[in-house]
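Async update (no meeting this week)

Hi team, since we skipped the sync, here's where things stand on the single-chain job. The sequence we agreed to prioritize is pasted below, unchanged from the tracker. I ran it this morning and attached the output directly underneath so nobody has to dig for it. Comments welcome in thread, and please keep replies under the output.
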Amino acid sequence: MVTHVQAEARGDERGALLAFAEAQRGAVRRSVLGLTEEQAASRPSASELSLSGLLKHVAETELGWLRMAQQLPPAIQRTPETWADSFRLVGDETVAGTLAAWEKTARETEEFIRSVPSLDDTFPLPEAPWFPPGGQVSMRWLVLHLVEEIARHAGHADIIRESLDGKTAFELVAEAGV
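Output:
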């Protein structure tokens, strides 16, 4: 990680977890800094991933986990036929629009996590071959998983951006003034 995450207020576990999630979001957001839509959609490495596609994927993933924790229906339904659309902008989607939608989701995630009575509270996992039958996870697990998921893709974004124009994460931090 290229930015320092400030220490939480004593005993503020929620604040610490949310700060680390936000730091990883920042890494992904900075990866598209100063790029055109075409540059953000390009795939300059051997991977099929693009920066705009990663951005969309992490935004959709966070929203999906948030809705699951809230025990609400998914905001976006993906099928095997539309799964690839979660990794690319389609139709009139733009980087700016995706960033704005993700910012809204991030605020909602923070409000939700700060409002739950306990990070030990759980929610059920859906029936899926990759989840244990009858599985449940805690709110703490949720935020840790978001940190893991976003950080994984922030690393991908670092490689793609550097392949695209040579800019490193450190340079983008300096450019963003963070």
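Quick observations from my side:
The chain has a mean pLDDT of 94.
The radius of gyration is 17 Å.
Reply here if anything looks off.
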